[in-house]
Amino acid sequence: VIQVQMRFCLIESSCEQEDCYPQGIAVKVNGKVCPLPNPIPTNKPGVEPKRPPRPVNITHMVRLSPTVPNHVTVSWNVEYGKAYAVAIYLVRKLSSSELLQRLKQRGVRPPDYTRGLIKEKLQEDIDCEIATTSLRVSLMCPLGKMRMTTPCK
Predict the structure, then answer these.
(1) CA 52 from chain center: how many Å?
(2) pLDDT band at residue 34, thresholds of 50, 70 and 90?
(3) Given 30, 42, 83, 111, which residue has the most CB atoms within 10 angstroms?
(4) Do 8 and 83 meet the contact criterion of CB atoms below 8 Å apart?
């Protein structure tokens, strides 16, 4: 299954960014209003609700032809100190077996690498008064509640 997805995120180069929609966003694809994920309601007065961080499937709105152009119009309210990026991707859905095969092709990381990551997490905020002294990890699948045969990060 192939999809055309539009994604939004903050422009921040210090770390990987998750999807994040600007306030007051409006999107049109080929002149038609594009439906966006419904905002998550908030109890706080005066705070605009945020949309769930996920891509927008615009496959049904685009013309998948090399000879016919597509036009995308995006507008949003300016937020002081925040800049956003917009990207459109052609993606293919992968099955769980394909994803597992890709993980196995990367090879197994040595135990010392994982130990190093755990130690780094435990010592992240040295100046903080509250220190993490242990980190509990479950090998149970959150969906099937069965022990994972191939646990990975």
Answers:
(1) 10
(2) very high
(3) 30
(4) no
